[in-house]
Amino acid sequence: MRYQLPRHITAAAGGAAAVADSRHAAAVIGPGRVGRTLSRMSVPPSPLYGRGSVLPQQLQGPIWVCTTNNALEDVVQRCVAPSQRQQLVFVQNGMLLPWLATHGLQHNTQVLLYMSATEDGKVTDGGRTVVCGSQSSHVVQLLQHGGVSCKQLGSWQEYHRAMVVKLLWSCIFWLLSAGLGGATVGNVVQQHAGAVEALVSELLPIAAEYLAAPGSAAVPTAVQQPQGWLQRQDQQQQDPDKQLRQSQQVQHEPSSPASNRRSSSTGRSSQLCGLDQASVTQQLVEYSLAIAAAVPSADMARREFTWRNGWFLGRRVTPQHEHWLLRAGCQDLLLQHARC
Are residues 143 and 259 in the same domain? Predict the structure, then answer.
């Protein structure tokens, strides 16, 4: 659905009037395309602030954070006063939970935004946006007023399941697209379904295991890279192509008893979290077919690597994942992550 968002929306009765009320006049940090679009959804338009700005301490109401992930620390430490941190609404992609928990923000309002916006104000509703948190009513009203449907979820468990689905899409589809030379997501689904299924099978249990672990929202310890990658690097310094040849053989290697036991354990974690592999894969496929002509941004994925694919690499050796990262030309990111 495409919706032409005017520069100044005239407030009407009902829900639109609620958005126009000064109590709902949100501020937006991050004057990029998404931030500008969300600002113009309010009546009058919400004030926009850059990542280096200091927001007025008397500012009331929700504060949308529309910056890149690497600016989040500046937002929390410099842009807002400690008393304003609970007003922050996060829309970033990737695995935010460890970072949010570090700052005591894991229960702040969070939005999984399925929306695109053009420079001239055209908004495309992805039809899958969801929100959870104390500012959910504001989020739903604002987005619906701007032509974007949004569902309020009733529990964080439900939200985290939806978050994992989007995380997997943002990790898998740019990777396969780039590894296949810039293929559309429709082509990936139609021609490389086996690769999609293999990556879901490898990555989903890692996320499910994290969610199921007691204290997973606690302050995380420093990320430790699994030894397997570092050991392989030491062994392959003299033959850079060896790793690619070995990773191409992964899919033909039989599973060991130890890996089978781990798969069984992580499979139980997936079930415990309500994340069924077949269902998750189907959701990824359906969304991809709905935007079949899209080519995910490899540049954006690389910039957010720590929050996307890098999070998985930091928790476990992922042979299929590493194989596709190499095909996508990301050996530098693998090396950088291994040295963290």
Answer: no
- Say how far apart CA 88 and CA 72 lie, in whole Å: 11
294 and 330 both lie in a single domain: yes
Based on the fold, state whether residues 66 and 40 are members of the same structural domain.
yes
Q: Are residues 193 and 117 located together in one domain of the fold? A: no
Identify how many contiguous H helices and E strands the chain contains and give both numbers.
16, 10
Whether residue 244 contacts residue 322, with contact meaning beta carbons closer than 8 Å, is answered with no
Buried b (16+ CB within 10 A) or exposed e, 153-187: beebeebbbbbbbbbbbbbbbbbbbbbbeebbbbb
Domain match, 147 and 176 both: no
Q: Do 44 and 8 meet the contact criterion of CB atoms below 8 Å apart? A: yes
Phi, psi torsion values for 234, nearest 5 degrees: -60, -35
Total domains in the chain come to 2
Of the candidates 33, 80, 22, the residue with the CA atom closest to the CA atom of residue 55: 80
Closest CA to 140 of 19, 312, 315, 263: 19
- What is the value of pTM for the model shown? 0.80
Same domain, yes or no: 302 and 325 = yes
Decide which of 139, 154, 169 is a domain's last residue: 154
We report the CATH number of the domain holding residue 130 as 3.40.50
pLDDT tens, residue order, the chain (340 aa): 544 454 433 333 334 443 434 444 589 999 999 999 999 999 899 999 998 899 999 998 999 999 999 999 999 999 999 999 999 999 999 999 999 999 999 999 999 999 998 888 789 999 999 999 999 999 999 999 999 999 999 999 999 999 999 999 999 999 999 999 999 999 999 999 999 999 999 999 999 999 998 776 533 333 333 344 444 444 444 454 544 444 445 444 444 444 444 445 455 555 556 899 999 999 999 999 999 999 999 999 999 999 999 999 999 999 999 999 999 999 999 988 764 4
* 135 and 281 together in one domain: no
Q: What is the span of the domain harbouring residue 42?
A: 2-154
